[in-house]
Amino acid sequence: MRVLVIDGQGGGLGKSLVTAVKERFPLAEVLAVGTNAMATGAMLRAGADQAATGENAVVVAVSRADVIMGPIGIVIADSMLGEITPRMAVAIGQSAAKRVLIPVNHCDNIVVGTADASMTRNVQSAMDVLETLIR
Fold first, then answer.
1. In angstroms, rounded to a whole number, what is the distance separating the alpha carbons of residues 77 and 97?
2. Is the full-model pTM beyond 0.85?
3. How many other CB atoms are there within 10 angstroms of residue 129's CB atom?
4. Tens digit of pLDDT for each residue in 49-95?
5. Which residues pair with 3 in a beta bridge?
6. Taking phi first (over 0 means left), then psi (-120 to 50 degrees means alpha), and beta for anything else, what does residue 70 get?
7. Which of 24, 43, 45, 54 could, after both became Cys, cross-link 14 (CB 3.0–4.6 A)?
8. Cβ pair 69, 21 in contact under 8 A
9. In DSSP terms, which residues pair with 102 in a beta bridge?
10. What's the rounded Cα separation, in Å, for the pair 55 and 61?
11. Which fold has domain 2-134?
């Protein structure tokens, strides 16, 4: 199973996801792509098996992933203060991989109908979903 974690800005959510995947699914291969070097570095330090940065890295990596994880903004062009390019959002949306998206109400995108859970709880919920996908 190849899990791709995509994050931007400071990479805090991506770092949490990489850590959680590696702890709960030690045999999973975790690829990390940051929209910037800071996010990539955070995910690499968290234990990602491979890491890269930028638009083309996202476009290439989504075709190699079984599951894509990250904040919901990764599928919205120009979100995350412009770090998600239209090309990135399209590549992620058109990927054959399953997408596990964490609701994050930032950068003018507000997700309604979701519980007001902590980021820690959302990461745990994402791991529960990933477990059903790995089986």
1. 19
2. yes
3. 14
4. 999 999 999 999 999 999 999 999 999 999 998 999 999 999 999 99
5. 30, 67
6. left
7. 43
8. yes
9. 71
10. 10
11. Quinone Oxidoreductase; Chain A, domain 1 (3.90.180)
Per the structure block, which two tokens stand in for 80?
């995350």
DSSP 68-98: EEEEGGGGSTTHHHHTS-HHHHHHHHH-SSE
Whole-number Å distance between alpha carbons of 36 and 128: 28
- Secondary structure E strands in the chain: 2-7, 29-34, 50-53, 67-71, 98-102
Question: Would strands 67-71 and 98-102 be described as parallel, antiparallel, or unpaired?
Answer: parallel
The first and second tokens of residue 122, run together, are 């959302």
Token pair in block for residue 22: 């590696």
